[in-house]
Amino acid sequence: MTDDDDNSAFIHAWLDDRYVPAGKLMQTSRGYEFWYGNSFLKNGYALDPIRLPLTEKIYFEPSLQGVLGGFGDALPDSWGRYLIKRKNGALNNIELLTIDASTQRMGGLFFSRDLNSKSVATSHDLEWMKQFSAWLCDHTHEFPAHTEFGSSAGGAKPKCLVKYQNKEWIAKFQPSNIELNKPAIEHGTLTLAKSCGIPCPESRLIDLPNQQQVVLIRRFSRNNETPLHYLSAKTACEVL
């Protein structure tokens, strides 16, 4: 079943080691509507246990915040939007949610136009990071392919989602217009905090051929390679 409406998308959630259809999100003239599918109502789980309990109700919000904030969490922030716009032009929120069809995307949700769509099993690797860093420092280099994959990582600074040595990471790069080596500073700060007994994610500092470095931080929305559904603190605390 294909959704021919440009203003709607099927939402798939990770359940029993695979993505299954969970419901449908639709943009209307008033805002956004979401409802669960019948099968997911019987066998699934609440995508937001407080604001989206498993009921037959149609949930509404003027924007992808509040009740529907969990779906807003899946949108790219300013950096991801910049990369997508550079290649695809301006897109609406439904288009932004569905453009990243990779298994690499943040969280445990997957968005599609087709009810039977499968996520693309692909990941950015070390070679892609090298190409991305080269382009980031000098835009005359070729723009990397598939920048939309993993574009749902939040934030305003250069980053992407990668797979390195069979682990899933958030990769943070050094902007060419900033002299401070921010990847090294972040890695050093995490290392220091961990030595003080503060729980921190695993991190690694990688040297790249263009004299740049990238810091890799283990992804919080993965258990090994299993996607984990999450809500941001902004959504959980209803901070707009």
Blueprint of the fold:
Elements: E1 8-15, E2 18-27, E3 32-36, H1 38-43, E4 59-61, H2 69-72, H3 78-88, H4 93-99, E5 109-112, H5 126-137, E6 159-164, E7 167-173, H6 182-195, E8 203-207, E9 213-218, E10 222-223, E11 226-227, H7 233-236
Antiparallel strand pairs: 1-2, 1-5, 2-3, 3-4, 6-7, 7-9, 8-9, 10-11
Written overview of the protein:
The protein has two domains: 8-120, no CATH class; 126-227, Phosphorylase Kinase, domain 1. It has helices spanning 38-43, 69-72, 78-88, 93-99, 126-137, 182-195, 233-236, and strands at 8-15, 18-27, 32-36, 59-61, 109-112, 159-164, 167-173, 203-207, 213-218, 222-223, 226-227. The protein has seven helices and eleven strands. The strands form three sheets. Strands 4-3-2-1-5 form a five-stranded antiparallel sheet. The protein is of the alpha+beta class and 240 residues long.
Chain-averaged pLDDT: 90
**If strands are numbered along the chain, what order do they take across the biggest sheet?**
4-3-2-1-5
What is the CA-atom radius of gyration, in angstroms?
A: 19 Å
**Looking at the structure, what is the overall shape?**
globular
Q: Helix count, per DSSP?
A: 7
The SSE string, one letter per element, is: EEEHEHHHEHEEHEEEEH
- Count of individual domains: 2
Low-confidence stretches: none
- Structure summary, number of beta strands: 11
Oligomer: single chain
State the end-to-end distance.
35 Å
Biggest sheet statistics: 5 strands, antiparallel
